[in-house]
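Quick one: structure for this chain?
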Amino acid sequence: WVIFPEKINGKFAVLHSISPKIQIDYLDDLQFNNYIPIKSCHRFTSRENCWDNMVRGVGPSPIKTKDGWLIIYHAMSNQDSSKYKLGAMMLDYNDPTKILYRLPYPLLEPDAKYENQGFKPGITYACGAVVVDDRLCIYYGAADTVVCVASTNYNQFLNTLKSSKPIGLEYV
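Got it. Here's what it folds into:
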């Protein structure tokens, strides 16, 4: 679960599922005095024949871009359920249940030695993302053992997300 960094239509928005559909609850405040449980529905069969047909969850809080809300998430495929890979999608500003763009391939997958040796080999999951100057930096855990960062040119990334061309990440 993540909270959007600003209110949407005057309410706090909590993103709590992206599988099989985008699920968001809207709250008047974050006090939880009259707590009403948020109910998520997960089903892993929404995108058959796609690399991310078993979405595990959203990573960092959404990033507001010129085109919509950037979401970085981790998922796996029922053809290779031993690997958690990172994906990216763009949601509409005013109705973030609407997906505007989604990469048809993984943004990052566990290929490096440090991503495949550790407590949980083959696992990558995003835990933070920030834009610094002209760079999108994605902080991610690997093998439940190390924390890593990969970066790319922010504007090129957004253009690529909209066009579905391959993205080149640099590992720091």
